[in-house]
Write a structure and sequence with these properties.
Blueprint (H helix, E strand, L loop, with lengths): L2 H16 L4 H8 L3 H13 L3 E2 L3 E2 L1 H10 L7 H32 L3 H31 L5 H30 L6 H27 L5 H27 L6 H36 L13
Antiparallel strand pairs: 1-2
Length: about 300
Amino acid sequence: MSKRDKTLKDILDLILYENPATQDEIAERLGITRRYVTQLLQPLVKDGTVKRAYMIDLKSYEKIAESLGDYVSTKSTTGNVLINDMIANMVKHVHSQLETSFNAILEYDEDLASKALEMDFATNNMVEKIRTSVETIVSINKHSEFSKSMLYSEIAYDLERIGDYCGHIAKFVINDVYEIDENILKKLKKMYKTAQKMIRLSMKAFLEAETDLKDDLMELEDSIHILQSKSINLIATQMAENSFDEKERSNYFIYLFRVIKAFERIGDISVEMMDVAIEFHDNIPRPTTPRSFRY
């Protein structure tokens, strides 16, 4: 493969998996000039291979990759491998988004909170890329199982929902004027670690077919609900000790409840993703009753 072709492949892979915002970012990440990036991408933009917001048409990508001699896979598996990689990259991003959001609380840092909120734009862009890529796979591979292919989109949507709840956590720092009481913060630290583990287990089940992790996940769900209950009891005690004449203080409690609820919902979504993994790999349909009505 020529140096030019390798650079083009690197640019396309970066767009597929890393979600760069500008050509300047692509150039910086690859250590090349912006002018060279423009030169390589311009023909692909004109023929529709590279679309708005740096999205790639998978069907065109297959042809380019094959022509570059760096694409060893059959059409029945090519698209799935690409989307698995895209979802794996999205999982890393969402883990980082949650970490940044919670670090903003730990350090009471508005800049970190703003960064976490900005990260949600990339999360949303990843969902759109996965959705359009799934549609392409279904269109170019007539033998694909439509229902299974659509489960990729569901996983991406669930990860986007987790990103939204990360935003609720980050907004606490931006909206509020009080730091969190140390006793409550200890509970939140445990909820954060539990939520991260739950995301990790559910996505390991989906990406690596390890659906036997469900029991471990359900134990973590029990833990996060216990922590939620204890946190709410601590807040209730604090509320009883404070006057609601203080508007700022009452807002503090409202925003704090939202943080606790965000962690609880992230746990619930992780269980829903595990159910998707079991349907995908074990062909066991998910429960039709919403989770909130199962208990």
